[in-house]
Specification:
mainly alpha, Serine Threonine Protein Phosphatase 5, Tetratricopeptide repeat, 3 domains, two-stranded antiparallel sheet, 2 strands, rod-shaped, protein dimerization activity
């Protein structure tokens, strides 16, 4: 089964885990709350305490200010003459990630508020319970206006127990948690409210503000934008304008990284194609014995192989190799080399029955040569498609003008 993430992501994840092992309190940072929740979900425990930020206020994994530090020598290049594969690979692996300078003012540490009762969603309240829940909501609103937020939360909790299907109760309790700087508790309540009513503008608004307090600017902008779309609110619009610059920076950074990854993927495919071509050329050269000009090797000769006992060293002669290339590219060029004894003797080995002194002609007297037509050997005509010998047999009879068409 293939891994769901790429190899480079495995390397980053390993580095992150090694860092957390050395600095476990880093998981108390708001940006890493989801990791902490994951660990605690399976019974793990994250040590309490504040994580001491590195110099310059940089979060080592992209949360607060910058995403990654620049390498010591980002300008270092690998010099190669013709092979660009290595330089491309080095460039893609050593290229520094872009830094994002975010305004982190107002971001707070994630709260550890235990989950509040959510009521029984299957319960169908009676009319009396609905009325009682309405009274409790009024009391909660009064407590909220007096900034008694804990008391307001208690009233909303009782109202939820009586009427758990009312989405507004969860959203308003989330608002009270927001006032107490407990964004995670607010998000849980707003999630429940949106589960009951996906068009709850209040739930989107308060959840968007909670994401902003945790430094989750993209999520915040998305929720606040949806809240204004459902029911425009000046406060929600003000919050949206506050988070938009950071959200845009993060979005642009992500798009840039996706574009770089796409470019790396294209380069990887191009490198793979170049390697395939080089390997193919290497195999062809190996088959041809490494002759000048990329000689095709044994498979390129008529008959598909070398004659028995043939000395391959003969083909290492550049003149011979060039002549064989010329002949194989155009068999008619064979006539150009008949006056060269070295090449002529070599050709006799490959094309028996065609040249004088060849040992193997076809049993029917016909040549096995692939070259059609006549060639000239020493100024004399040689019929390559007929009987072997220096000259075709002469007939003493005068040729008749009559041609038998074979119809009799």
């Amino acid at each position: 089964m293939a891994a769901p993430i790429q190899q480079e992501d495995f390397i980053k994840l390993k580095s992150f885990i090694e860092f957390v092992n050395r600095n476990p309190t880093v998981l108390n940072m708001p940006q890493l709350q989801f990791v902490k929740d994951f660990i605690e979900k399976f019974g793990g425990k994250v040590p309490d305490g504040d994580f001491k930020m590195p110099e310059a206020g940089k979060c080592p994994f992209g949360g607060d200010a910058g995403t990654n530090s620049k390498p010591a020598d980002a300008s270092a290049k690998v010099d190669t003459d013709d092979d660009s594969d290595k330089s491309d690979a080095d460039e893609s692996s050593s290229e520094p990630e872009s830094d994002i300078e975010l305004d982190m003012e107002g971001v707070i540490e994630a709260d550890k508020e235990p989950a509040q009762p959510m009521g029984d969603s299957a319960k169908e309240p009676t009319d009396e319970e609905i009325d009682q829940a309405g009274d409790l909501r009024s009391q909660a609103a009064a407590a909220y206006s007096e900034q008694k937020f804990d008391e307001a939360i208690g009233f909303y909790t009782k109202a939820i127990e009586l009427n758990p299907a009312n989405a507004l109760f969860y959203a308003k309790r989330g608002q009270a948690f927001l006032k107490l700087k407990k964004p995670n508790a607010c998000i849980r309540d707003c999630d429940k409210a949106l589960e009951l009513n996906c068009d709850s503008a209040a739930a989107y608004k308060f959840r968007g503000r909670a994401h902003r307090l945790l430094g989750q600017f993209e999520k915040s902008a998305k929720d606040l934008r949806q809240a204004c779309k459902l029911d425009f609110d000046e406060e929600a619009d003000e919050w949206l304008r506050e988070v938009t610059p950071n959200a845009q920076k993060i979005e642009q950074h992500r798009i840039k990284q996706e574009r770089k990854q796409a470019e790396r993927d294209i380069k990887n495919r191009q490198r793979a194609q170049r390697r395939a071509r080089k390997e193919q050329a290497k195999q062809q050269n190996a088959a041809g014995g490494g002759f000048p000009g990329g000689f095709p090797g044994a498979g390129g000769f008529p008959g598909g192989g070398m004659p028995a006992g043939f000395d391959m060293s003969q083909l290492k002669d550049p003149v011979v190799a060039a002549a064989m290339q010329d002949i194989l590219s155009n068999p008619a060029n064979i006539s150009k080399y008949m006056s060269n004894p070295k090449i002529f003797n070599l050709l006799k080995n490959f094309f028996p029955g065609v040249f004088p002194g060849s040992e193997a002609a076809g049993s029917d007297g016909n040549s096995s040569s692939p070259f059609a037509g006549d060639t000239e050997v020493g100024g004399k005509s040689t019929a390559t498609g007929g009987n072997s010998g220096t000259e075709p047999p002469k007939s003493n009879k005068k040729e008749s003008d009559f041609v038998d068409d074979g119809l009799d």
